[in-house]
DNA sequence: TTACTTATTAGCCATTTAGCTATATAATGA
DNA sequence: TCATTATATAGCTAAATGGCTAATAAGTAA
């Protein structure tokens, strides 16, 4: 599993962005509106998520629309379950 | 969900320690033997895991035995599934 | 072209992180 | 008590992180 996904998911702001994008695609501005951070700060979080391939972006006029890459998220969850789920030594 | 668990799990060395402890309790030295890092480095990783309550330690003579706190690990996985699992907007 | 809007990139700073070596602590046994 | 073993803590450094403001880019429309 790609280390960058773990790093991306280890920040509370980025996890909240992921949760927002679960509702559906959103522009960078719509995402930023949910936080008190400065807008460039959110932009950088989006870049981190993009490098982890957890989100994809697409320009639409002056807007940039972000959407969740559900595949990566689900692969990450599957990896976690495989490595850390179940299998208690005294199960 | 406690932020410290995410931070603890975001490091590859610590995840490997967790995987080792899934096999059963181990002393700090046994754990350190699985890595090329210096012993104090592993000791510090164990402290991070301890503060996240992912492991517990118990002195046994000169040894200190670490064991997994499976409850926390499973609660973390459950939280992840609840927040990020399923629920694709186009499912 | 100019002005406006949306968003990113650049550059800075403070804090955290992860590694190391050296030192300290705790338990045991001679 | 002294030595040995197992482990943690202290103190340092380099790199990464996350925040900010200021500047830049990209698109639209007058």
From TrEMBL, chains A, B:
The keyword Glycoprotein does not apply. One of its GO terms (molecular function) is DNA binding. It holds the Pfam family HTH_5. Residues 1-88 form the HTH arsR-type domain. InterPro entries: ArsR-like_HTH (IPR011991), HTH_ArsR_DNA-bd_dom (IPR001845), HTH_MetalResp_TranReg (IPR051081), SdpR-like_repress (IPR047796), WH-like_DNA-bd_sf (IPR036388), WH_DNA-bd_sf (IPR036390). Signal peptide: none annotated. The keyword Transcription applies. Keywords: DNA-binding, Transcription, Transcription regulation. NCBIfam families: HTH_metalloreg, repress_SdpR. PANTHER family: TRANSCRIPTIONAL REGULATOR, ARSR FAMILY, TRANSCRIPTIONAL REPRESSOR SDPR. This is Transcriptional regulator.
